[in-house]
Write a structure and sequence with these properties.
688 residues; 13% strand
């Protein structure tokens, strides 16, 4: 198959847009060239180029198709519309039976012709998040000025340009030319295809593959750090970003002036990352090292000494700014900043951050006894939790909210548990983050997330399939992880009264909370997603929850584990099969004369197998009590005893007996089986 190659060479593309642009190019080209059946598609992205390579058919084969038109008796307007739709004339149609028919023939189209016709329109509609115009009067836009289009098919140029009527498209036309590194190899050169392009660019100090650039960055800064007995603070997001800023990664190390080493390490790391895209380093004892790593895009003649000195000078200025905020913020106590939160809007419909603090204090006090901490400490931590939002440091670096609050609380001689809770109440911020483990931190973290969930649900800002602007899924998952990973089952944490308490905090604003059950269902849904991600039986969770929504997540999980363990054994699997058989019979027969919910009449139990099943069900009368006592192991053992008599029942008993009274009684017995099992879980929801 012919090899197709396309490179779009421009001024520097923002790093955050490159990967998505390569995906969009792949998608749009696959659609536009679908008739050529592209295969082996590969895309590339970097600071100044996105590219695509694929194998395509050499032509679109000739084809013939038949289009049936309106009836011959239809009004003339119908025929005229049909001809206009297919760009055909009257002499091209014929009558077959009662209908007009158009036979359309399409000649074979060479791949180069199709590509040349498709690409100009593709490039004009390319979906950059932000685009710009430049120079002249052309209406063609690109993320940054587009300089070259390389388009090849089996080494030959596929000729096209971006002219569109009076619009000259900046004079851009396809060629076999591209350019190397901006400083080391800026001259244009010819390429014959993807492999030749990648090899020649590597010679000209450009790594076209983003994965290669990331590997060079990671390995390079790790090697330099190790030479100083240091380690690099893990930051894959920063590696991704830097790989989008440089074509030829040259890792370097710089020194941090001693006078800045007393700044909090988080401040240093965020300042370096956000402002300069530098990597933080750690000493062998885990403390911040007086070094930083960064990546240049050129190989300097002096080995990078001038570049390092310049970056050290810039960093001194950045850290001087950070020190200004650090020193200024500590002049005011954290508690003295709380009144200022009244002037910080949380949400127009939910009030200020000051109002939110009042709600969090009340809710944290309610939660505190359930997680084993003092109410006063929980309330104090909640009172100060948002105070750092009005500090200079957090204003400059919002990523440090909570972190700076802890430092300022310790400076004010607040209890260390309170200070830690200020930092930890935002956790977990992501899947890889640890959850808070100290009771005070747990109380405030749960209060924060419950307030967020209940408040935004109350004003109708619920997550949708297309978006979750207030991160409510993350908040729900945070609640679940805190409970699961801290094993709060031992301390008992019923969610419904806590949800209702959170809702009460909004009444004074005239905001009506949704029923607690709606929040519980949302939490259960997030729990199902998490279990599915872990490969656990999320369908069992659905079945247990459907048997009666439980507002104790830990208890719900324990019950789910017990049912899953039952189903994993042979008794459970066979019992599930028998349950489904019983449920199917009841569903069919209930349409005739159901429901069959009355207790079975023991006098009508004629066959030993049905009498044995009835007595087994009698012996299971305490299943509900066992579930209430959370003795799930014994409850599942009782359930397992149901399997042999139920198997015997289906083997020896005819449910649809000719005697109406026997048939109804046996259906009532099966309904009793289903009802008993449904007390444990809705087994109809079990998959497989």
């Amino acid at each position: 198959m012919p090899a197709f190659f396309l490179e779009l060479f421009s001024e520097e593309i923002p790093a955050r847009m490159q990967s998505r642009a390569a995906e969009d190019l792949t998608r749009l080209a696959s659609e536009a060239l679908a008739a050529l059946a592209p295969t082996n598609i590969r895309s590339f992205h970097g600071p100044r180029r996105i590219a695509l390579a694929a194998d395509v058919a050499d032509a679109v084969a000739a084809s013939t198709s038949i289009e049936r038109g309106p009836r011959a008796s239809a009004p003339e307007q119908a025929l005229t519309g049909f001809l206009r739709k297919h760009n055909a004339s009257r002499d091209q149609i014929r009558q077959e039976g009662d209908y007009w028919v158009l036979e359309k023939s399409a000649a074979a189209v060479p791949a180069a012709t199709l590509i040349a016709e498709a690409l100009p329109a593709l490039l004009r509609r390319f979906p950059w998040p932000k685009s710009m115009r430049w120079g002249g009067t052309s209406h063609f836009t690109w993320v940054r000025p587009l300089r070259r289009i390389t388009c090849l098919l089996n080494g030959s140029v596929v000729p096209f340009d971006l002219r569109d009527g009076a619009d000259d498209g900046h004079g851009l036309a396809s060629s076999n030319l591209t350019e190397g590194h901006r400083f080391h190899a800026p001259d244009a050169f010819t390429v014959t295809g993807c492999d030749d392009w990648a090899a020649k660019l590597k010679e000209r100090l450009v790594l076209v593959n983003a994965a290669d650039r990331k590997r060079a960055i990671s390995e390079g800064i790790t090697r330099l750090a190790a030479a100083q007995c240091l380690t690099v603070v893990d930051d894959p997001g920063l590696i991704d970003e830097v790989a989008g800023l440089v074509e030829h990664p040259v890792p370097l190390l710089g020194r941090i002036a001693d006078e800045h080493m007393d700044l909090p390490p988080e401040v240093m790391q965020v300042s370096m990352r956000v402002n300069q895209r530098y990597f933080a380093l750690r000493a062998p004892d885990g403390k911040a090292a007086p070094w930083f790593a960064f990546v240049a895009n050129i190989e300097a003649a002096d080995g990078g000494a001038t570049i390092v000195a310049g970056n050290e000078r810039v960093l001194r200025a950045r850290f001087a700014d950070a020190r200004h905020f650090w020193d200024l913020d500590r002049k005011a106590r954290l508690e003295g900043r709380v009144p200022s939160l009244e002037h910080v809007t949380f949400h127009a419909k939910l009030g200020s951050q000051g109002e939110r603090v009042t709600r969090l204090m009340r809710l944290a006090e309610i939660i505190a006894p359930h997680v084993g901490c003092g109410e006063a400490l929980a309330a104090r931590a909640a009172e100060l939790a948002k105070a750092d939002l009005v500090t200079g440091m957090v204003g400059e670096f919002p990523e440090l909210q909570g972190v700076m609050g802890r430092y300022y609380a310790l400076h004010d001689n607040e209890d260390r548990l309170v200070a830690d809770a200020i930092r930890d109440h935002y956790a977990p911020r992501g899947q890889s983050d640890d959850v808070p483990t100290a009771p005070v931190s747990i109380a405030v973290a749960l209060a924060d997330k419950l307030d967020q969930l209940v408040g935004f649900f109350a004003i109708g800002e619920k997550p949708t399939g297309s978006g979750d602007p207030y991160a409510l899924r993350r908040a729900a998952l945070g609640i679940i992880r805190i409970i699961r990973e801290n094993k709060l089952r031992q301390l008992r944490l019923s969610m419904k009264p806590l949800i209702e308490a959170a809702g009460a905090g909004f009444h004074h604003r005239g905001v009506t909370p949704v029923p607690a059950e709606e929040i519980l269902e949302f939490l259960a849904d997030r729990l199902r997603v998490q279990l599915r991600t872990e490969g656990a039986r999320h369908d069992v969770l659905s079945a247990v929850f459907a048997a009666g929504s439980d507002d104790d997540i830990a208890r719900l999980l324990a019950r789910t584990d017990a049912v899953a363990a039952l189903l994993a054994g042979p008794d459970g699997a066979d019992l599930l099969t028998a349950y489904r058989r019983a449920a199917n019979i009841l569903r069919i027969e209930s349409r005739k004369d159901g429901p069959h919910e009355a207790p079975p009449d023991e006098e009508l139990l004629r066959v030993p197998a049905e009498l044995d099943l009835h007595h087994t069900l009698d012996a299971m009368h305490d299943v509900g009590d066992l579930l209430a006592q959370e003795d799930y192991g014994t409850a599942m053992s009782r359930m397992a005893r149901l399997r042999p008599p139920l198997d015997a029942f289906f083997e020896h008993v005819t449910v649809n007996a000719p005697e109406p009274e026997l048939r109804r009684n046996r259906l009532r017995l099966l309904n009793r089986v289903r009802s008993t099992m449904d007390r444990v879980a809705d087994f109809s929801r079990i998959e497989g």
